Every structure is written in C-alpha cells, then in structure tokens.
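Quick illustration, no need to memorize.
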Amino acid sequence: MTVRNYEFTVLIQPQLEESARKALVERYGKVMEESGGTAPVINLWGLRTLAYEINRFREAYYVLYEGPIKTSDVAEIERTLNINENVLRYLFIAK
C-alpha cells in the first residue's frame, strides 16, 4: 500500500445549514485520517463567488484538505464525493 500526500478541494452548496456543512467537512477529514494515519490539514476558505454557475448556484463554500491518503482509497473517496448531492465539485491533486 502506497501512501502519498494529496490535497483536494471541495465546493459545497451554499444553502446547506452550518451544522450539516460542518458534519460534511468533518466526515471527509475522518476519512482522510483513517486512510493516511494522520489528521489532515483542513482549510475553510468560506463562501466564495464562482467563476461560472454550477447547478444554478453562483456561490459555493470552499474547503481544502491536505494530507496523506492511501492511493487505493482515492477512488473510493471520489465515488462518495460524486454521490453526495451537497458537493458541487471537487478536485484531487497528488503533491
């Protein structure tokens, strides 16, 4: 099992309640921690205006995660991000 450093940005729907948004942020933080063995760095960028409209939204809540993840777990994390209706977009980058 190879563990690499990744960063991924998640754009969350702006209408989501704060408690639900915090739960979503913590959920993916825990997934990263379980996969990589250490707690990720989570940067909450807050509400930002989008360059173009996504699903009729002009704004999104940005969250940046940084930390180690097993390469075998990346596909599973992406699958859960695709399924989640509160996630507008995401981007994984291997550092």
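The two ends are 17 Å apart (CA to CA).
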